Amino acid sequence: MSKRLHVESGDCGECTSRRGFLESTLTGVVVAGVAVLVGDDRLPIGTARAFAAQADERKYPVPQADGVTIDRENEVILVRFQGAVYAFNLACPHEHTALRWREADGRFQCPRHESKYKPDGTYISGRATRSMDRFAVRQEAGAIVVDLSRLFESDKQSAEWAAATVKL
Questions:
Q1: For 21, which of 4, 39, 78, 153 is 20 to 30 Å away at the CA?
Q2: Which helix (H) or strand (E) holds 127?
Q3: Which of 131, 126, 138, 141 is nearest to 164 (CA)?
Q4: Which of 131, 138, 124, 125 is nearest to 158 (CA)?
Q5: What ranges in 86-146 are assigned the alpha helix state H?
């Protein structure tokens, strides 16, 4: 969640003086300006369940906006980010601990060994040795179809991993 400066009818709340108010206001303006310049990668998070299942395939609504959706039952993370949709395995590729979305940091992180990943699943740092595992995904009849039988590891199937995306 983004932090926003909030002032109600002249009462600053945390500020003890006019100088404190002005300093906090200036800080808020600078932080907002930096977020615009570098791009704010924070995505909202939600939970969902597949609305249809057939064999190893699960169907989800096409995400209408950038965000992270977790389906714990099927161990799928669905992400819409910068015009693309990805489906990831919920487990960290290092030791299979459930990954967490860190909204404030705009990234995934493993709570066990702190491996970090970008919203598109690309490895940033930590003990893991590869990016998040991606499921094969396609768009069909207004739905995102995730094939749970086709999981790609970035270090062993780099072409398939890179292609496991739906461009919107």
A1: 39
A2: none
A3: 138
A4: 131
A5: none
Query: Could you give the CA distance from residue 99 to residue 7 in angstroms, rounded to a whole number?
Result: 36
Question: Would you state the torsion angle of the CA atoms of residues 70, 68, 65, 37, taken in this order, to the nearest 10 degrees?
Answer: 180
Residue 139 β-bridge partners: 144
Taking the C-alpha atoms of residue 158 and residue 46, their distance in angstroms, rounded to an integer, is 29
> Taking a C-beta distance cutoff of 8 angstroms, is the pair 128, 115 a contact?
yes
Contacts of 38 (CB under 8 A, 6+ apart): none
Q: How far is it, in rounded angstroms, from Cα 81 to Cα 102?
A: 15
What is the reported pTM? 0.73
Is residue 155 packed enough to be buried (19+ CB in 10 Å), middle (13-18) or exposed (0-12)?
exposed
Nearest to 122 by CA among 150, 82, 154: 154
**Token pair 């493993």: residue:** 110
Give the H or E element holding residue 161: helix 158-163
How far apart CA 89 and CA 99 sit, in angstroms, is 9
Q: What is the pLDDT of residues 123-155, one digit of tens each?
A: 999 999 999 999 999 999 999 999 999 999 999
Token code pair at residue 127: 């003990």
Which residues face 101 on adjacent strands?
A: 108
Give the pair of three-digit tokens for residue 114: 């702190």
DSSP assignment, residue 13? S
* The one-letter amino acid at 100: R
